[in-house]
Specification:
Largest sheet: 8 strands, antiparallel
Strand content: 15-25%
Helix content: 25-40%
Number of strands: 10
């Protein structure tokens, strides 16, 4: 048999490998759909070997985000190139499900660092995000979570709890916030990195871009908070939460409902959900290294 005939009969290794990869990806998607995209299982799967990590980075993290926060992800990804998102889908997944904790910084002092942890539920809102934008940057779109509340790590019976919050910009590279930071020649922080993608960050406190509405939204006092924004558009920060009386608690709940109900009909999906996405994570907490 001629060499040409042998070449024709021999199966293509490349096509066999590609087909195997497609089948594996389909099977993996079906498996994770059946377990409702459990975050801990996906963390474990992506750490098995390089191939599974590559599939997770290319496909599975994105699908998890879409499953858990469909409307938020649709908004963030609209207009993006090749369905990509700043920092990668794995970073967004971590931001959705992981409270990064808090460390002492030059503008926010802690006597003891607070470690990060997975959260059982998170609420991200564009309404909250608007409270974190200065007047010049109100055209930006920013999702911000409600603060994750922790007892004061200093102890000693201090009343103020520690709030840790996180968020993400849509299209940060073209945002007014980024343009303002660059225009003011704000320097990147030397000792702080984004806990979600590892990128350099700007301190919005040092840049004097923290509006008073941010403290009101968080239930803090002006000057009692700090937050950072990384070059990929991820936000993370900490604040001291002012104790509220029961009457003030009721007023705050009413305010929250009023703010979130001023959404146009176009922001509702078939279930009638507004612009706020709710994400629920079940299972025991895992360590930061799983990401």
């Amino acid at each position: 048999m001629s060499a040409n005939a042998n070449t024709r009969l021999r199966p293509s290794r490349g096509s066999e490998s590609d087909e195997s990869g497609i089948i594996n990806e389909r099977v993996l998607v079906l498996i994770f759909e059946s377990i409702k995209w459990d975050i801990h299982t996906l963390c474990s799967t992506s750490s098995v070997n390089r191939k599974l990590r590559a599939i997770a980075n290319r496909l599975l993290w994105r699908e998890l985000c879409v499953h858990r926060a469909p409307r938020m992800v649709s908004t963030l990804a609209s207009g993006s190139t090749n369905n990509r998102i700043g920092g990668g889908w794995h970073a967004l997944a971590k931001l959705l499900f992981f409270c990064c904790g808090s460390e002492s910084t030059r503008n926010f002092k802690l006597s003891r660092d607070l470690p990060g942890h997975f959260v059982k539920a998170s609420r991200f809102s564009k309404t909250s995000g608007r409270s974190f934008l200065s007047k010049k940057c109100r055209g930006d779109l920013l999702y911000v979570s409600d603060p994750c509340e922790h007892p004061n790590p200093s102890g000693g019976g201090k009343e103020d709890d520690l709030g840790v919050y996180r968020g993400v910009f849509k299209g940060f590279l073209k945002s007014r916030t980024r343009a303002c930071l660059i225009g003011r020649q704000v320097e990147l922080e030397e000792k702080v990195r984004c806990p979600y993608c590892g990128a350099p960050v700007w301190s919005m406190t040092s840049a004097r871009l923290v509006p008073k509405s941010a403290a009101r939204r968080l239930g803090s006092h002006h000057g009692g908070l700090e937050y950072f924004v990384c070059v990929n558009g991820h936000l993370h920060g900490s604040c001291w939460l002012v104790p509220l009386s029961s009457d003030e608690d009721e007023d705050e709940d009413d305010l929250d409902l009023d703010l979130d109900d001023d959404v146009d009909g176009d922001d509702e999906d078939e279930t009638g959900a507004h612009e706020v996405d709710h994400m629920v994570v079940s299972g025991s907490a895992s360590s930061r290294e799983e990401y």
